[in-house]
Every structure is written in structure tokens, then in C-alpha cells.
Write a structure and sequence with these properties.
Elements: H1 2-29, H2 34-58, H3 62-88, H4 93-112, H5 116-140, H6 146-173, H7 185-221, E1 230-231, H8 232-235, E2 242-243, E3 247-254, H9 257-264, H10 266-283, E4 289-294, E5 297-303, H11 308-323, E6 337-343, E7 348-349, H12 350-366, E8 372-374, H13 376-381
Parallel strand pairs: 1-4, 6-8
Antiparallel strand pairs: 2-7, 3-5, 3-6, 4-5
């Protein structure tokens, strides 16, 4: 059994070292991902704690056992902070530090007064609490990836229970003062659960992190960097798809935008584009899509059985743009917008709708700008 425990601790060491190095190298590549640094530091502390714990397997030493718990508690605290950062964007250092200090003090005080068994109980229970709170972070954030987040939360719960059982077993056996390393059924279960659980947690955490990076890159590829709206590529992913009846496309273009750039400069022109994008965003519904097609050209896809809804949205935006003053370093900017609308008859592609909306937009421009026009095909049909 002694060899088995040492083998398990060595396996935990190699597994943790490999994972920690991987996480640290990933942080080096992407310095903005601070949760990776927290996780790698956590594993470093945990490995030192495991090493001290391994040293008391053959030759019991209360000081080494205490040091082991202090490193493990600190490591699990860093693991919680990193996971909180990953799940919510905030590391929650106050709670992490509170639990680490509480665990460190209670364990140290018990060992200092000679009650190493009670100190070991306290250390195990605090490790369980840290695992439980970390798992809860993944549980409340499971909407991002229900299966993987829930699986990670479950693994943290299982590991948490195994630590609490270690404390329970010592209390049940009345081992308040230790003369040897704890050895009971709970410790055996904990050894197996920890290596399996932490390996699974590491694998799932890496998978979740890589999935998030892939999704972020996909969003960035589909988002206009200046305005935060969708870009042309995102809107026209499937240009040949048939648009259902009731779908309308509103093409919008800021009037005389070149003159704005020439007079105020491109930076001020960018401010005008961002202000217009915010105005669009404020006037559409969650079911609508808005995109910047390029330059000063924007597009809104409206899904509504009420044929007046797209016109109402376009007119509202037009009126607000006309009344808007955009403050810039080069002076206030005033502008107007023209819009063209096309409606799908139920057997039309998005590309076809865009062509007809552009034609209606050209009509609005040719009639003097600052107005909304509907595709002549829809007008005749009406």
C-alpha cells in the first residue's frame, strides 16, 4: 500500500507538472489570459504541497505535513481565483484570500498547539470548500458550454467530497493528535479521486479555454472592428439562402461622408461612423441584424410580419441622425442618412434583397438624400 501511495503521488506530480508547464506556455503566448497564469501558479504550489506530503509517507514529520497543507491551500486558492476569472471575468481575490488565510490560520494554530489531527481535519475541509466554490463557479457559468462546464463542476464536487471525507474519517476515529501520516479508507479514496479528478479537470479546462479562443476568433472575423456591428462577411455567409416572407433589408448610407472626411479628417469620420452605429444599435430589436457593409454603408435585416416596421425603424433612425450633433476635436459634425428598403416575397435570396435595397437607396440619393425609399418592385406589388 505504501508503494501505491508513493506511485500515486508521483503520478500526480508528473501530471501536474506537464499541465502547469502547458498552461504557463499558453499564458506566455497570450499575456491577456491571466487565468492561465493563476492556474499555472496554482499547480506549482500544489506540486510543492504534494512533494511535502510525499515526504511524510515513510517518515512522519508534523512540520512537513503542515507545510504541505499550507502550499495546497494556497494552490487551491489560486485555482479558485483563476477559475473565477475564466468564468466571470473577475478573479474574486477577496474570497480566495479569505479562504486561504482562514484555512492557513486554522491549520497552523491547531498544529502549533500539538493537535495535528485537528489541523489535518481543518486543512482537508478547507481544501474541500475551495474545490466546492470553484466548482460552483463553473456551474453558474454553464450556459457558455453546458456539457463541459457541468462536467468540470461535477469533477470539482467529487474532489471536494473526497477531501471532506478525509477530515470526517479522522474525526470519526478520534485522531486529534497524529503520530503518523493519516492512513484510512478516506485517504485511499482521496488519492485515487485527486489524480483522476485533477487530470479530468485539467483536460476540460484546456478544452474550454481553447474553445473560447476559437469562438473569439470567429466573432472577431465576423465583427466590424470599428463599430462592433457585424461585417459584410458575417451578413452574407449564405447569400443564396432564401429569405422568408416578412423579411426586409434596409440599406443605409451616410450622406456626403467623403466631405466629412475631407473637412474633419478620417479620425473624426470614424467617430461619426461609431456614433451612427450606436444609434442603429439603439433602434433595432434583438431579432434584427445590423452590419457595416464597408465605408459609410450599413445594412439592417428586419424580420417582422408588419410591413410598416422596417420603414418605421428606418425613418426613426433618419430623424435621429438629422437631429444629432457629433462632438469631435475638429468641431461638431452634422450629417444625414439615406435609406433603401426591400421586402422578401418568400422566394428571394439575401443577395437579391441587398441589390434591390441598394437600388432604392440610390433612388433616395438621387431625389436629394435624407429620405427613405422602398424598392419599386415592392411598391408595385403593394
Amino acid at each position: 500500500m505504501l508503494l501505491d501511495q508513493l506511485s500515486i503521488l508521483i503520478a500526480i506530480g508528473f501530471s501536474g507538472a506537464s499541465l502547469g508547464l502547458t498552461l504557463f506556455m499558453m499564458w506566455i503566448v497570450g499575456r491577456g489570459e491571466t487565468h492561465l497564469l493563476s492556474w499555472s501558479l496554482a499547480l506549482a504550489f500544489i506540486l510543492v504541497g504534494v512533494a511535502f506530503f510525499g515526504s511524510v509517507v515513510e517518515n512522519y514529520n508534523a512540520v512537513f505535513l503542515l507545510v504541505s497543507f499550507l502550499f495546497l491551500i494556497t494552490g487551491f486558492g489560486l485555482l479558485y481565483a483563476g477559475s473565477a476569472k475564466f468564468c466571470s471575468g473577475q478573479a474574486d481575490w477577496p474570497l480566495a484570500m479569505t479562504l486561504v488565510v482562514l484555512g492557513g490560520l486554522s491549520t497552523t494554530v491547531a498544529f502549533a498547539f500539538g493537535y495535528s489531527g485537528i489541523g489535518t481535519m481543518a486543512g482537508n475541509i478547507l481544501l474541500g470548500v475551495l474545490m466546492l466554490t470553484t466548482g460552483y463557479r463553473y456551474w453558474i457559468a454553464r450556459a457558455e458550454s453546458p456539457l463541459l462546464m457541468t462536467a468540470n463542476a461535477a469533477l470539482y464536487l467529487i474532489v471536494s467530497v473526497s477531501f471532506v471525507l478525509c477530515g470526517y474519517a479522522l474525526a470519526h476515529e478520534g485522531q486529534y493528535i497524529l503520530t503518523a501520516k493519516p492512513s484510512n479508507w478516506a485517504e485511499d479514496i482521496n488519492s485515487i479521486v485527486v489524480i483522476a479528478g485533477l487530470t479530468g479537470i485539467g483536460t476540460l479546462s484546456l478544452t474550454l479555454n481553447q474553445a473560447r479562443i476559437a469562438n473569439r476568433h470567429k466573432r472577431e472575423a465576423m465583427t466590424d472592428a470599428l463599430t462592433g456591428l457585424l461585417n459584410r462577411r458575417a451578413l452574407l455567409q449564405n447569400p443564396s439562402d432564401t429569405m422568408p416572407a416578412g423579411t426586409a433589408l434596409v440599406a443605409m448610407d451616410l450622406d456626403y461622408f467623403k466631405k466629412i472626411n475631407d473637412r474633419f479628417g478620417h479620425d473624426c469620420g470614424d467617430q461619426a461612423l461609431k456614433a451612427f452605429a450606436e444609434l442603429i444599435r439603439a433602434n433595432i430589436r434583438p431579432t434584427d441584424l445590423a452590419a457595416r457593409m464597408g465605408g459609410e454603408e450599413f445594412c439592417i435585416v428586419v424580420s417582422d410580419e408588419n410591413p410598416r416596421a422596417p420603414t418605421a425603424i428606418a425613418e426613426r433612425i433618419r430623424e435621429q441622425v438629422e437631429a444629432m450633433t457629433i462632438p469631435t476635436a475638429a468641431g461638431p459634425i452634422r450629417t444625414t442618412v439615406s435609406a433603401g428598403i426591400s421586402y422578401s416575397s418568400g422566394d428571394e435570396t439575401l443577395q437579391s434583397l441587398l441589390i434591390r435595397a441598394d437600388e432604392a437607396l440610390y433612388e433616395a440619393k438621387s431625389e436629394g438624400r435624407n429620405r427613405v425609399r422602398t424598392s419599386s418592385l415592392n411598391s408595385l406589388a403593394a
